[in-house]
């Protein structure tokens, strides 16, 4: 991604990180977002395992 991340991009990244956490699929996760000295938290649901975008983000095995 080039440039600054918008709210949608930050939320998607947070949901992807939550996907690989120990959280239950339908349980909101608090994800801390930091940029320099600024910090805030997003409460997101983990990205579902069957989200079709995940396959495009995986590295070749």
Structural domains: how many:
1
| N-C termini distance | 23 Å
How many β-strand stretches? Answer: 2
Helix content: 25-40%
Shape: globular
Structural class determined from secondary elements:
alpha+beta
Relative strand content: 15-25%
Main β sheet profile: 2 strands, antiparallel
Order of helices and strands: HEEH
Number of helices: 2
Largest sheet: spatial strand order: 1-2
Rg computed from alpha carbons, rounded to a whole number of angstroms: 13 Å
Residue-averaged pLDDT: 89
Spans where pLDDT lies below 50 across 5 or more residues: none
TL;DR?
The chain has 61 residues and is an alpha+beta fold.
Give the SSE layout.
Elements (H helix, E strand, L loop, with lengths): L6 H13 L9 E7 L2 E7 L8 H5 L4
Antiparallel strand pairs: 1-2
């Amino acid at each position: 991604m080039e440039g600054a991340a918008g709210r949608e991009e930050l939320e998607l990244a947070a949901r992807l990180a939550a996907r690989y956490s120990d959280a239950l699929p339908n349980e909101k996760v608090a994800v801390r977002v930091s940029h320099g000295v600024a910090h805030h938290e997003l409460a997101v649901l983990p990205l579902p395992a069957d989200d079709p975008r995940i396959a495009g983000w995986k590295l070749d095995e």
